[in-house]
Amino acid sequence: MAKRSKQWLQAQQRDQYVKQARQSHYRSRAVFKLRQIDQKEKLFHPGQAVIDLGAAPGSWSQYVSECINPQGRLIAVDILAMQALDKVLFIQGDVTETRVLDACRQELQNTAADLVISDMAPNLTGIRVTDQARSMRLAELVYDFSCDVLKPGGDMLIKLFQGEGSDEFKKELMQRFQKVIVKKPNASRAGSREFYVLARGYEV
Ligand SMILES: C[S@@+](CC[C@H](N)C(=O)[O-])C[C@H]1O[C@@H](n2cnc3c(N)ncnc32)[C@H](O)[C@@H]1O
Prior knowledge:
Layout: H1 3-23, H2 30-41, E1 49-53, H3 59-68, E2 73-78, E3 88-92, H4 98-108, E4 113-118, H5 128-149, E5 150-161, H6 166-174, E6 177-183, E7 194-202
Bound molecules: S-adenosylmethionine.
């Protein structure tokens, strides 16, 4: 397909996702990225305990909540405020602050999590090296936290940006997870460096 036609098609699809999110009850088009990954990978099941990092405005939390409830547990964290969602425990704070992830651990009440998902992206400065370094620092933090709270066999889904450190990070994950898969759902813009890493089967 010619580049211009492809760009046009992608723009249409983007609009479609925005429209679909508006028409449905979802708060953001980001939900379609998670749903497309889940449709292929079957991540969510009733009764799971899930932690959603960088959750606002809340479309991932909405989707996960639908998949895991009535018996599931969902803890959502964001530095921004988030409108309340039924059956979602929300913690407002910056995950780089120890107290915030400690609050998450406390809410888990000595049970381990089935999944940690992170759609976090740092505030962009426009300086690519700085933005990439910040993004990788967030990813490392999510990885460390996941190693602490995941149950054996648990999964982790993290948003990354292609660039310095992302390949090494994937290799690092392979040491602690049985399978590491790169996901670029259709709802994620093809021109964006954004992609997701799904690490499955945590080995304690
Ligand atoms: C792309 S949005 C997430 C969208 C969300 N998945 C949804 O479906 O509605 C990324 C979020 O990460 C949050 N974030 C970025 N850095 C953070 C940090 N250090 N601590 C907590 N949240 C953070 C931002 O505030 C933002 O709301």
